[in-house]
Design goal:
With about 70 residues, this protein is α+β, with helices and mostly antiparallel strands. It is built from one helix and three strands, in the order βββα.
């Protein structure tokens, strides 16, 4: 694992076409902005783990993936 230190408005580049920008830092949270081609899927790890969970263990509710989580980049 590569561990980097970044400040607000600094970016991390992955390959030629993926950029991760530090948008905000505070209150124990970091807000990231991700720019990637439309064919690259960007999901949070807990969303993937939720899909892998058996149906009997999935949280109740109409949506498994909220629009702000699964939004196209």
């Amino acid at each position: 694992m590569l561990v980097l230190t970044r400040k607000v408005n600094e970016e991390i580049l992955i390959g030629d076409n993926i950029r991760i920008k530090i948008v905000d830092i505070g209150a124990g949270r970091i807000r990231l902005g991700i720019s990637a081609p439309r064919d690259v899927t960007v999901l949070r790890d807990e969303v993937i783990r939720d899909f892998d969970r058996p149906a009997t263990q999935k949280p109740a509710g109409p949506e498994v993936c909220a629009p702000e989580i699964c939004a196209t980049v």
